[in-house]
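Build the 3D complex.
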Amino acid sequence: MTDTISIEHAQSDRAYEIDSGFINAVLAAAEDGARDDLIALFEPLHAADIADVLEQVSATEREAIVALWGDEVDGEVFAEMDEDISVELMENLSDDIIGEAMRDLDTDDVVDLIEDMEEPQKERVLGSLEEADRAAVQQSLSYPEETAGRLMQRELVMAPTHWRVGDAIDEMRKSDDLPERFYDVVIVDPRLKPVGKVPLSSLMSHPRDTALTEIMDEEFRTIPVGQSQEDVAYAFNQYNMVSAPVVDEQDRLVGVITMDDAMEVLEEEAEEDIMLLAGVGDETLHDSTWNTTKLRFPWLAVNLVTSILASLVIAQFSSTIEAIVALAILMPIVASMGGNAGTQTLTVAVRALATKDLTPSNAWRVIRREMFVGLLNGCIFAVIIGIVGVIWFGTPMLGVVLGLAMIVNLLVAGLAGISVPIVLDKLGVDPALASSAFVTTVTDVVGFFVFLGLAGALLL
Amino acid sequence: MTDTISIEHAQSDRAYEIDSGFINAVLAAAEDGARDDLIALFEPLHAADIADVLEQVSATEREAIVALWGDEVDGEVFAEMDEDISVELMENLSDDIIGEAMRDLDTDDVVDLIEDMEEPQKERVLGSLEEADRAAVQQSLSYPEETAGRLMQRELVMAPTHWRVGDAIDEMRKSDDLPERFYDVVIVDPRLKPVGKVPLSSLMSHPRDTALTEIMDEEFRTIPVGQSQEDVAYAFNQYNMVSAPVVDEQDRLVGVITMDDAMEVLEEEAEEDIMLLAGVGDETLHDSTWNTTKLRFPWLAVNLVTSILASLVIAQFSSTIEAIVALAILMPIVASMGGNAGTQTLTVAVRALATKDLTPSNAWRVIRREMFVGLLNGCIFAVIIGIVGVIWFGTPMLGVVLGLAMIVNLLVAGLAGISVPIVLDKLGVDPALASSAFVTTVTDVVGFFVFLGLAGALLL
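Done.
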C-alpha cells in the first residue's frame, strides 16, 4: 500500500475517501505554483483518486492544478474522470501533452474519452495518436454508441487451434506488444472465428505439450459487436465472465471486452434507473447551476401538468368541499398514500425488468400479487385512517368514506404500479423514464375522485 | 456457444432473456415426470440461467422440477439463485444430493448460501462438506456479515518472494488443488504478509528466470478482512481490480476476493439504494403476497404519519379555505412540486454519497448550487403557475400567492433535499433509507403552510 498518506484504508466508514486535508494541500500547491509539491502529492495516488480530487474542486481550481501539473499529466486520470470534465480540461492542454497522455491508454479508454467531444477537438486528439492506434479508435467509433463495439479494446491475445500450451507461452514471451492486462487466450480458426478460449490459469496449470483445444473453457460466449452495452453488462454479470471476445457480423474476432468495462456499464445502468425514477436526467454533481436547472425542468413540468390534472378533478367537487371543509383537510392523505404505494410497486417492477426477472412467464402471477398486496395494505390502512377520521372529526361516515377511498386507491396503485412499467417495456420505452409520472397521475386522480365522490354521495 | 437453442443471442432487446417456450417445455417435462427430457433441456444451460428458470416458475412447480432433477442437481444453480429460494429448495433435498451439490462450489459460494439458513439446516449442509472445506466455511462464517471475510474465498495461489517465474509455473503445473479460476499470484513474505502480486499475464510474458518481485504490480492493495462489503466493491470499481488479497489484523494473507463477487455487491448496493429510496425493503419478486405486504407496510405507515402532519397544517387554515374554496383546489400543486423537486435533489445526493463524490470538500458548493437550482426553477414555475391561477380563477392576487409559495417551496425543497442526506450520512444512518420521508414531510408542510398562510394574509 503505497498511498497511506492520503487515503484512509481503515475499516471505518470512510475507507477510500479522500480526506479534505489532502485536497487542501493540493490546492495550496496549485496556488503557490509549487509544481514539485503537486507532483509529489499525486505521485503515490491511483489515477482514479486523482480524478476524484479534480472532480471535487471547482472548475477554476481544476484548471490551475492541471496547468501546473503540465507534462506530468497522466492519461489514465482523464479516463477515470467524468467525461464532461475531461473534455473541458483537455481543451486547454497543448497537443504534445495530450499526445503523451493518450499514449498511456488502451483504445477503449481513448474511445470513451473522445466520443463526447466536438468535431474539432476530436480531430485534434485523434491526430495526436500513433497511426495504428488511430485506426483502431476510428474503427471503434464507427460502431453505434452504447454498443459492444465502443466498449471493446483491440488489444488481445489469440492463438490458432493447433497450438499447444508451450507454443502459446513461447509466443507470448517473444511478443512485445501484449495488452497491459489480459485474462484469456482466444482460440481462433483460420477464418479468425473464435472457437473457444483458454483462461491464463488453465494455461499455467497444464504441461507444455497439452493441446490448447483440450483445455478450452466449456463455457464460451462471444459478444456480437452491435450488442447493446446493457446486454453486454448483463451477460458479464449473469455468467461471471472476466473477458469475452467480440465478433463482427461474419463471426470474426474484432476485439475483447473485459470485466472492468462491463462493471462500469452495470453501475451506469443502475444509476440511470435510480436517476430516471426520480426524474433526474443524466446529471452529475459537477454540472453548473444553470445546466442542472435545465435538466430538472422537464420532469417538474410534467409534474405540474399532472398536479393540475388532479386539481381539475378536485374542482369538480368544489361544492362538496364548500359544504364540508374537513374534506379539503383530509383529501391529500388518500392521494399521497396511493402515490407512495404505486411508487413502491413500480420501483420493484422497473428493477425486475432491468434484471430480466420479470418476464411474460411470470407477469400475470406478479400482477395478481401486486393487486392483492395493494388490497391488503388498503384494508389495513383503511381501518387506521377510518379511526383517525372518526376521532378527529366525530363523523363516523367520514371514517367510512376515508377507508373505502383508501382501499380503492391502494388497489389501483398496485395495478398501475405493475402494469405501467410492463406496458412501457413492451412498447420499447425505458420503463424507468415515464412510469412514475403515469402512476402518480393515476393515483392522484383516482385518490381525489374516489374520496370526494364518495363523500358527495354518502355525506351530503 | 452451446445454448443457442434456448436463449436468444440476437442483437435484439431480448438478448439473454429466457423465452417462455423453453419454460413451458421444462414445466411439461416436470409434469410428465420425463426426467431425461428435463436433464437434456438443462444440460446446455449456464447455471445462472437454470436458476432464472427456477425463479420464474411458481414454488410448487419449482419443487417438482428439482425433485425430478434429483442427483443431477448442480450446486452452482443454488449459488446463482435468490437465497430465500435456494434455502427453501434445499430443505427438501437428501443429504447425499446436498453434499454432491456443495462439492461443486468454492467456499465463498457455500458461505453465501448457508449464511441465511436456520441453525439445523446450516448444520446439515456443513455436515455434508469435506473436512477442509467445512473448516474454511466455518472460518468465513466467524467474520461479521457483509464484510470482506464473508466475500473472500480461501482458494488462492501464493509464492514466496525469492521465487522466479519458472518456479511459479513449475509449482502450479505440479499442484493438483489450484483454484478453478485465478488471476494473480500473491507474493508473501515468510510471515505470510502479502508484499505484492503478479498478474498471470505478466507471468506469461516474462522469461523463466525473471524474479517475481521484479514484475510485481505497482498498484497493490490489500483488503482488511473486516472491511464492509460496500467498501470492498467500491475499491474494486475505483481501482479496476480483478482480484485482491485479504489480510487479517496481523496483516497475514487469509483469502482472496475476486471481481465477480465485488460486481455482485456493487449491484446489490445500487439496488438497495433504489429500493430504499422508494420505500421498499429487501424484497424480491418471489416473496409471497403476505411477506410483500408486511415489507411495504412500514414505509406506508411513515407516509401516513407524514400526510396526517400535512393535514394538521391544512386544518389550521380551514376558515381560509371555507372563504375561498379555490385554495383547496390549488393547494396540492405547490406541495407536489416541492415533493418532486426535493426527491430529485435527494436522489442525486444519495448517489453522490454512495459513490463518494459528495464529500466535506465540496459539500458547501453543492448545497449552494442546489439552493440556486431550487430558486431558479421556483421562479420559472412561479410565473407559469401564477398565470394558470389568474386565468383559471380570474383573481390576480391568487396568481401572486401561488407564485410566491412555489418559489419558497422549491427553494426549501433544494435545501432539504441536499442537507437531509448529508446530515443522515454524518450521523451514520444510510441516507437512502430515511431521506425521502424527511424531505417530503418538509415540502408538504412548507408547501401547504406557505400557500395557505399567504392566501390568508393577502386574499382575505
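Residues 166 and 208 of chain B are 4 Å apart (CA to CA).
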